[in-house]
Every structure is written in structure tokens, then in C-alpha cells.
Amino acid sequence: MESLLTINQVARRSGVAASALRYYEEKGLITSERAGSGHRRFRRPVLRRLAFIVFAQRLGMSLTEIGVELAKLPDDHVPKGQDWARLSGPWSARIDERIAELERLKLGLAKCISCGCLSLELCKLVNPADRAGTSGPGPRFWVGEEDGAVGKGND
Amino acid sequence: MESLLTINQVARRSGVAASALRYYEEKGLITSERAGSGHRRFRRPVLRRLAFIVFAQRLGMSLTEIGVELAKLPDDHVPKGQDWARLSGPWSARIDERIAELERLKLGLAKCISCGCLSLELCKLVNPADRAGTSGPGPRFWVGEEDGAVGKGND
DNA sequence: CCTTGACTTCAAGTTCACTTGAACTTGTAG
DNA sequence: CTACAAGTTCAAGTGAACTTGAAGTCAAGG
Q1: How far is residue B46's CA from residue B30's CA, in Å, rounded to a whole number?
Q2: CB contact at 8 A, B73 and B83
Q3: CA–CA gap between residue B51 and residue A108 (Å, rounded)
Q4: How many other β-carbons are positioned within 10 Å of the β-carbon of residue B137?
Q5: Protein chain A, residues 24-83, with a C-beta closer than 7 Å to any atom of nucleic acid strand D
Q6: DSSP of B51-109
Q7: Do A101 and B58 touch (CB under 8 A)?
Q8: Is A67 a residue whose pLDDT tops 70?
Q9: Which of A82, A84, A100, B36 places its Cα 20 to 30 Å from the Cα of A136?
Q10: Residues A81 and B152 sit within 8 Å (Cβ to Cβ)
Q11: Residue A5 pLDDT class (50, 70, 90 cuts)
């Protein structure tokens, strides 16, 4: 028994909807074999890949970015601890950055929100590195003064 | 000089695009007066409201959720330190939760990714409270075993 | 043989958070 | 008076990440 999983088995075990699994496959994030019937059969390592995808989404990464990371895993053999471990260094750093930003936000919240400087200081608290700066729709980030019409009064 | 700001002044000072400001106003997140010409005139406190919106977005909140929070601010007077401070308690807690989740993720990454248990343990690391559980599109979260087809082998 | 359930593909729909474009009005400078 | 920038509304488009629906296939059970 090679222990191949149907799409719904994977869906139940991963918490990722079957439709999402097809979507991920279409996007090249995961792969499957086919049974004679044409039905998908997933190998078990897909579960770890999915764990990684869910994980990375919680960190705010887009599927495209996640795809880039997953591409670093080998195609020629089932990924081993070492393969995943190669990814984990940069990831720890990434998480640390995000935590640091949240700490800054928290500090800013406590320190500034009641003193009137929030609207002037938030720019220094928010790290725009990740998703900002992309063109098209999506939230922008706070920038400093740029405008002539700056009063001396508190905002 | 009452120091009312035009939409582009607000846009420059907040880093939020003018189109987004109109959108926020439409959604009831901010308000403006009108000049005789029909042009929007924003009062200065809108800048702090916008700071709060940008801030909350960085925490992963939707505009709808942010609207609920902003509704807690008084309409009858310019929000003061105390008004903002009333919000800050729950917010600190919220940030702490998020930080705690990231710490768990990081720990899980370091501890589990190389030992083969990741796909079984992530469920305990990821806090689904925030955005998961919503119906419709969007990412799902990892759930535990639910399925008969569980092998004893490592995934 | 017929139904049921699990699966397939493909096209179209949904939500969020905006942006873009068209057509129009106003205020200021030359 | 004419330009032109800056503003307006409204409708439609965008991109990400999926979901939903329609129509069809396939294997197993009664």
C-alpha cells in the first residue's frame, strides 16, 4: 500500500478545501499523480507542503512568494529534514522582523496614542518593506511630512 | 484659519491615496465637510484616524472590523487622548496574541520542521481566531486528524 | 441496469480594497 | 477670457485567492 491520498482525504487532513487544492496544483504549488480514472492521487509529503503554505500565509506571504520558496525544495527526492531546514533560517529572520514590527506598533500605541503624536510618528513604527510599494490595489503606508501646509498645531 | 485640508493635502500627509480617502469616506470610516465648491474639506483629526486605519491594517484587520473600532470613538467632540486610550487596552492584547502566535510558529519551525512532525503539529501552532472560520473565499486553517486513512509512517 | 457518490474540467462568480477612466465643474493665474 | 490644475461623481476594472455551478466520467452497491 503506497498510501496515496484522494483529494478529499488531503482536504480533511489539511483543512484546505478541495477546490483550493486544485487551485494550488494549477498554480504549481503542489503536484499529484493520477489514478486510472483520472482522479488525483496525492503523495503524503503534500501534507507537509500544505502545512508550509498555510504557515506562510499566516506570515502574510502571497501564493506567488510561497511558490518561490517552495521551488527551493528538491523535485528529485522526497524533501528531508535538511531540505526544510535550509529554508528555516531566513524564515526565522522573517518572523523576527514581523515580531519586531508588532513590538514597535505596540510601543507606539502605548506611548503615542494618548499624547497626540500618533499621526506624525506612525511612519516610524510601520515597516513598509513587505507588501507595500507594490503597484496596483492594496493598502499604502504612512509617509512623513511632504507638504507645505503643515501647521504647528497638534493634529 | 481653521486649517481644513483638501483631499490631496491629506493624501500627501497620510500616504493614503486620494481615491482611497474617498473610498474610506464612502465606507464611513472618515468624514469631511464640503467647501462651497463641493470639494471635500477634512478636519485635522482625520489624520489620526487614518493613522489608526493604516495601523490596524498592518495588524491584519479588515476595513469592516476597523470601522467597528472607530465607531467607538465619539462623534460629538474631537477625540482626545482618553478616547484613543480606551481602545488601546484591547489592542495591546491583540498585538500580544499575534506576537505569541508568531513565537509559536517560530518555535515550531525550529523544532519541528526538521523532525518530520510539521504536518501533524502545525495545527497546534496556528491560531485561527482572527480571519479563519469566515465563510466564502480566503485561506483556511490547519485542522487535526479526522480521517481513517492515517498511516503510522512519517509523512 | 440504475443510482449514488466521489471525482473531473471549465467558466463564471465573489470578496476585499482599492484604482482607473470618462465626463464634468470650480478656482486661480496669466 | 482662456488655460489649467484640482476637485467632483459614477461606473467599471483589477488582483488575489478562492468558491460555485454546470455538465460529464467512473467504480461500486443493490
Answers
A1: 7
A2: yes
A3: 11
A4: 8
A5: 24, 36-38, 57, 62-64
A6: HHHHHHHHTT--HHHHHHHHTTS-SSS---HHHHHHHHHHHHHHHHHHHHHHHHHHHHH
A7: yes
A8: yes
A9: A100
A10: no
A11: very high
Separation between Cα atoms, residue A95 and residue B107, nearest integer Å = 10
CB B35 within 8 A of CB B25: no
The answer to whether B8 CB is within 7 Å of strand C is no
Which nucleotide is closest, CA of A139 to its C1'? C17
Give contacts of A 4-63 with B, CB under 8 A.
5, 9, 12-17, 20, 44-45, 47-48, 50-52, 54-55, 57-60
Residue with cell 508550509: A52
Q: What is the reported pLDDT for A51? A: 85
- The beta strand positions in chain A, using DSSP E, are 33-34, 40-41
C-beta of residue B55 within 8 angstroms of C-beta of residue B98:
no
Mutation target for B interface from A78, A109, A154: give the one with most B CBs within 10 A. A109
Q: Which residue of B has its CA nearest to A143?
A: B15
Backbone phi, psi, residue B10, to 5° = -65, -40
Residue with smallest Cα–C1' gap to C16: B62
Task: Please give the grid coordinates belonging to residue A116.
Answer: 497626540
User: How far apart, in Å, are the Cα atoms of B40 and each of A58, A147, B12, B33?
Assistant: 38, 18, 15, 6
Tell me: the pLDDT tens digits for A72-106?
877 656 666 677 777 777 788 888 888 888 888 78
Collect the ranges in chain B with pLDDT lower than 50.
Answer: 1, 118-120, 128-155
d(CA B114, CA B60): 29
Q: Max CA-CA distance within chain B? A: 75
Written as nine digits, the cell of A94 is 522573517
Nucleotides of C under 7 A from a protein CB: 6-9, 13-20, 25-27
Closest CA to A53 of B62, B151, B119: B119
Beta strands (DSSP E) in B17-127 are 33-34, 40-41
